[in-house]
Structures are given as C-alpha cells and as structure tokens.
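Sequence decides. Our protein:
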Amino acid sequence: MKSGSGIAAVLLVCMALPTPVLGQDREPETQVFEVDEIIVQSTRSNRRVQDEPIRVEVIGQEEIEEKLLMRPGNISMLLAETGGLRVQVTSPALGSANIRVQGLSGRYTQLLADGLPLYGGQASSLGLLQIPPSDLGQVEVIKGSASALYGPAALGGVINLISRRPSDEHEGELILNVTSREGEDLSAYGAGPLSVSWSGSSLLGLNHQSAQDIDGDGWADMAGYSRWAFRPRLFWTGDSGATAFLTLGAMQEERAGGTLAGRNAPDGSPFLQLQDTTRFDGGAIFERSLGNGGFAQLRASAVSQDHRHQFGDVIERDEHRTLFGEASLSVDWAGSSWVVGAAMQSDDYTSESFPLFDYTFTTPALFVQVESEVGESLTLAASGRWDDHSEYGSYFSPRFSALYRPGPWTLRASWGKGFYAPTPFVEETEASGLSRLEPISGLRAETAQTASLDLGYAAGPFEATVTLFASDIEDAVQVQEVAPNRIRLVNSGGTTRTRGTELLLRYRWDAFTVTGSYVYVDASEPDPVGTGRRTVPLTPRQSGGVVAMWEDHDRGRIGLEAYYTGSQPLDGNPYRYEGRDYFELGALGEIVVADGVRVFLNLENLLNVRQTRYDPLLLPQRSPSGSWTVESWAPLEGFTINGGIRLRFGGH
C-alpha cells in the first residue's frame, strides 16, 4: 500500500500488458499459486503487486466489467462491494456519498486518477457519483495512512483509478443501459494508435435519472440528475524510452432532490435541494530514463470546479481550484531502490455567498523512500514526507513496511503516521450547506497513526488473506450544536480509535470463481455532547459477502451475490438508535448474441430491502445542520432492474 508518484515508470509497460485479475492463470496445484504480473501504479517502486511490502488491493479489468454492467454511470458499486470499503450516503436528498476505508471518515480518503488529484484535493461527496468507469483498466486501493507519500489528503487511504491503455489495434465499446427506476446511461469508449509514437483514448458518458419518490411521502428517495462527461487521453513513447501521458476532462451535472412539485416538507413549505456542478481538469506525466534503472519524472495537474447549491430558500455558489506539481528522481544505490522528490499543492476555495469560509492552502513537500531486499524472502521499505502547510504548520509523516514470503505464505506488516488539514466540509455541511455553520477558528490539524498486519496464503486454485488493522486519530474534527439552528466545528477532546479485521477467501475452478469476504470493525470516539465515549455512528460492526461468478469470454457470464450488513449506531435519528441488519441479494447475466454484441441484465436488491419500509426518511423538523432527512443506514431505492446492450468494435 504505497502511494503514487512513480506511475509514469510503468505507463509503457501497462500499455503492452493485459489488465489481469488477481490469481488468474495459476500454475498447477503442485506449485505456488502466483498472481499474474500486475505492475502496481500507485507505488513509486514499480514492483509487481505480490512483491510490494505494503498491501495494495487491485481490482482488475474483469471485475470492473462486472460492476460496470450493474451501474454504468459511476464507480460507487465498484467500490461498495470491495472488502474494507464502505460507500456511505452523506445526503439522502441528493444521493451524495463518500468512501470510508476500514471504518474511517470519508474525508480522509484520497481519490486519484492515474496518480493525479483530478477530483480536487478533497473530493466532494458527489465526486464519487460523477466518475464513469468505462475507461478504467484497474483500481488500486491503499488502506491506512498514506500521508508519507500523498500528503494530508490521504490520512485514511488512497483509491487510485488507473485508465485503460490503448492496444496496438483500434478498438471501441458502446454501452446502452436502462433501469426500472427511470434511469438511462450511454457510455462510448474508443482507443488505438495515432502514429508510431502516439496513441490515445477518449470516453463520452451521458447519464440521466428521474427523481423517484418510492415511499410516496413527497420527498425524492432517489435524486434526479442529468450529466455528461468527456475525457480524452494521449500516450507518447519517444525513441530514447521517454514516455508522456496527457489527460483532459470536462463534466457538467444538474442534480435535483428534496420535495417534489406540489409537495411540502413537514413544516408545510416546499424544500427544493439542487446542485449544479461544472468541472474541468487536466494532467500530465513525463518520465525519462537515466540509465542503470534510474529515471526522472515530472507530474502536474490542475482542477477547476464550480458549484451552485440550493437548500430551500438558500443559494450558495462556490469555486474550488487545485494545482499540483511534483518532481522526483528514482535510483538504485547501495543495493536499495531510492526515490527522492519535491511536491507542491495549492487548494483554493471561494464562496460567493459565505466568503468568511474562503481559504487558500499552499503545501510544499519533500519526500524520500527506500526499499531493500534482505535475502530471498524479506523486503523492507521506509518512506517519509515533510509537508509545510500554510495554515496548519509543518508535519513529518513516516511509514515503515515489511514483506516476508516463505513459499505459499505472505506476511506483511505496516505502520504509518499522517495528518489531515481541516476544511469547512464535513459530512453535515456537504449535505446541508454552510448557512448554519459558525465561523471557523482555533481548529488544529487532525493527526493519526495506523497499523496493519496481513497474512496471506495462495496455492492451487485457493487463496486467503487475513488482515488486522488499527488506527488512532487525535484531534478529529466533530460537529457540535451551539444554538437551535447553529453548528460549529471543534477538535474532539480525545482519541478516535478503530480496530478490526478483514478476511478474504477465493476459490477458482475452470470458469467458476467464488469469493467470500468478512469485515469486523470496532470504532469509538469521544462523545461530542458529553464526557464519555460512543461507537462511531454509521459504522456496522460486521459486514460480509459471497460472490459466485461463471465467465466464458466467448459466451458470457452469470453471477450471484449476497451481502450482509450488520446493525450500526445512528446519530440524531428520532425513530431508532440503531439501524437494523439486512441482507442484499443480486443476480447478473450477460450473453454473447453475436460477434461483438452482448446483452446484459442485472437484478439488484432482490429482497427489496429499503430503509423507508421501517421508518420515515423525513425528520419532524430540520436538524441543527439544516438537513430534513435522517441518516441513510440502508438502501433507499429498493429492488431495481437494469439491463442493456454492449457493443464492441475492433481490438483483438
């Protein structure tokens, strides 16, 4: 689980390699069950995933395709069904969500595209729902503090979305999808060589969803939206082995929730909740070989996001700007692999409606990493990063990792420290705006240390991994009510502790794959309204799932899945103190009807689990932060069917 300044070193390699799935094409059972050669692009070391001292979980192309058929418009399904990750709805009014890693708050998760912060320094809670997955080649997940390489935004972990690399032939894919909840998606992807040195790809996504009031209370259980997104990419390889990667992105979305036309909130007045988003971004990576295994790399990106929010009668307009640049040098010296570099990131927020919350954070940084093989089975790694944050001061973030591989066994241990620079945006203000937030003063940076221990075994068609993880966060930012309709952000008076374990089992037999996962999380924090402690709200203590998939590339695929979510404590819910446990069942089928033509059908939430079958979604009166809804602890959309057609052109 390392971080990603060194991705350009493997761009050329990944353009030539297929995008495999963990464990595919294993050796016979008499030999060690090795993983395919997947080069991890989120690390600086350019190692294979199985050689990384820090565990990096890779979601491969085939699994991306499976989740793509379930939800072609965004990556939420892809991440929600990954062990140790939880996609938490932050605003039932708009459907916004963030990603919690091993029980930690979603604001601590850094979301990257090809190692660049193309969704901003702090991705908004709607960013997850605005990213089409059709052009992804793999997704890499780093759990635990990655501040040692990525800086303050990666206190809890990193999710790096790696784009598909063009092959040596022109190819394309068109996906048309409709849902039983009046949703439509169109995704068009094309890629191929442009010249001897250049190749490129492009993605166009069009998505629409009608607002749905499933329980008939006049409030949208599913927000309506219309969105388009376009992303071209260019790849260059020079005669000297130098490589370059260029990407541009544009996205525009109009999203609407709250009360439907002619209906009112419990106070007798309509409450429309809207958000319009326009985002432009660009990024570049250049790398040049220095000989003897060394290389120099330059990376840069820029992001501009404009928002118009409406919360009833309150309209908020704001702008987010992120600039990023980095230079690094990788060399082999004294029997070890070294990386040294410098980075600079600027995050700027300007509010037209509430300028007292404006901020500009500038953070220069220096970092170093060393990895060394000690004998045939032991690899040690250490990294450190110094950040000089313009608002919260200087912090040093170290990380140490070790990998021991005796035969079919794998043992990894990792420990790291990091920090997070608070902003006005926590889950409550993302959902309800800034109108009820007191001016921010006296906040300190949040600091944390995380540790993990992984034991893995792979032989024949079977593989298993057990992970123990822990984190301690000091000065975690909490929301306090200071008046009937006012809130403020404060640092907690104690330690937020998380302890847990993950279990992953996988068995493959010919075209069949069965995967089981289980996660246990025990998370507690200081009570923001008292002197004691409480279990962190919206954190299920137990969750797990089983997925069975049959796949034949020439015929199609059939999949069945079952997921369990245990009970979880709630906060500010007048109807219950704890959410019920529930099961979700799903089924997916895709058949090849002709060369390049596939038809798919997905049945989601077959048991029709829906939070509003147990309690109302609406509060009797608005919460102190301004929300009209309770927290989302179970699905809101219920049983859903989606299906469509997938057309492929060219390629191998």
